[in-house]
Amino acid sequence: MISSAQTLAIAILGCALGACAFKQYAPQPLVPEDIEADFAARSARAPELRDYMQAHGLESGDWPLQRWGLPELTLLAFYYHPELRQAAARAQIARAQEQSAGQPLNPGLRIGPEYHSFIERGSPWSLGFALSIPFETMNKRGLRGEQAAYLAQAAALDVGAVAWKLRNQVRSRFIDNFVAREELALLQTETEARERQTKLLDKRLGLGMISAFEAGVARRQAADGKLRALRKKGEVSLALSRLAEAVALPDASLQDMTLSFAGLDRALAAEASALKREALTHRLDMRRLLLEYAAAETALKLEIARQYPDFEFTPGYAWDQSDNVWSLAVGLLVPVLNRNQGPIAEAEARRAAKAQDFAALQNQTIAATEQAALKYRNALAELAAAGNLQRAMQRQRDRITRQFDAGNADRLDTVTAELQVLEAGRAILQARAATLAALGELEDVLQRPLFGAFLLPEFGTAKDAH
Predict the structure, then answer these.
(1) Which CATH number is 73-115+138-264 given?
(2) pLDDT tens track, the chain, 466 positions
(3) How far apart are CA 79 and CA 435, in angstroms?
(4) Per the confidence metrics, is the pTM higher than 0.85?
(5) Distances (CA, A) of 23 to 19, 20, 95, 104, 301
(6) Where would you tag: which of 134, 398, 434, 447 has the fewest CB atoms within 10 A of its CB?
């Protein structure tokens, strides 16, 4: 028979063996200088970036890329931007909480030596131990794990939500670069035309054909055009710097990159009803609320299960003056004073609140989709009207050019016609910018790429694995 001393030795040995499996602390000091150096070393030519972009749908075999469009810049932001890694870290916390929720309860061990001050014979010492084994009823552990799993899935969707936020920033600033560069090109062309106009008017002034006031107005317009062009150059540089911020690269890295705006203009032909269905299906915030509702429902199941008490089995053994004493006890909380009514009522209220949150978000999504689609259609109509005006000005310019070639118009008439075409071009550029902004707003509502396909990160970024 195993003696009490041997039993105690076995228990101590078991605890020692269990301690061998404990996780050890590993320090990870945060060095700000390293973070700064990592940012400065970022490049759009990194081979790891190429692998990441190819894994997320980039089909181009050329590396480094010669031209960067919106899809490529979006993936660049996904790879480098710290906000996406922040979201992935928070999702990892939720996954760890899921692991914690599924952990079984550890048993307890109580060892107690006793000394007897009055004894007739034998040793005054006795030694005993008791093992407490908890037993949860009504699948409480499983319900905790189920609730944590829903919340972990919701946290994983937050990674996608941050990705859409980054996509929004990159798209907006990419369009800003397109508009700023187009405006600069128009202003430079207009400046050249106004300089020609000024020279022609100065000749007429010298011949006494016009007043000094008319010539002065033209010179002032030419000077204003030069000033606007100079100011626009600064806006182009600032727009590029803001784009660098959106993709989390140093400004200098974008200076050597060629932006491609090909395919930026595209019409989206879809009925409002189809767009609403798509928004209600694809939006991440709606999917997140569904998961939160499922978690709230599981929480209610858990509180209902907690009406029923858990058990604790406590087998014990004691060696008392050469006598082996065995015991078995069962403990539980008796649900007499309450049956968990308060927490159950709270859980029911939280579930009802989540249901109302979903209904409210659904109504907001439907309204936002209808408004974004209407705004986009109106922008397309304005763009078409601006296009008609520009074509009319171009026909007038061509007619005056033919008259000039035939000797029925002078050079000043052709320059004036060219300026009218440029003015119409400015109107059509403003309409294009409004159309692109409206399409971007519709993309945000649908949470589906309309300017070019890309894959959302699964859980984090490839950068996280390095």
Answers:
(1) 1.20.1600.10
(2) 445 444 554 555 455 445 457 889 899 888 888 888 888 888 888 899 999 988 888 876 788 888 999 989 999 999 999 999 999 999 999 999 999 998 998 999 998 888 777 777 777 788 888 999 999 999 999 999 999 999 999 999 999 999 999 999 999 999 999 999 999 999 999 999 999 999 988 888 888 888 888 888 889 989 999 999 999 999 999 999 999 999 999 988 888 899 998 877 665 655 666 777 878 878 899 999 999 999 999 999 999 999 999 999 999 988 877 778 898 999 988 888 889 999 999 999 999 999 999 999 999 999 999 999 899 889 989 999 999 999 999 999 999 999 989 888 889 999 999 999 999 999 999 999 999 999 889 888 888 877 765 554 543 333 443 3
(3) 29
(4) no
(5) 9, 9, 18, 18, 34
(6) 398
Which two tokens mark 263? 């395919």
Q: Compute CA distances 137 → 78, 101, 309, whole Å.
A: 45, 16, 7
Distance (Å, whole) CA 316 – CA 325: 8
Q: Radius of gyration (Cα) for the chain, nearest Å?
A: 37
Residue ranges of domains in the chain = 73-115+138-264
| CA atoms of 281 and 275, how far apart (whole Å) | 10
- Taking the alpha carbons at both ends of the chain, their separation in whole angstroms is 57
Q: How far apart are CA 43 and CA 250, in angstroms?
A: 8
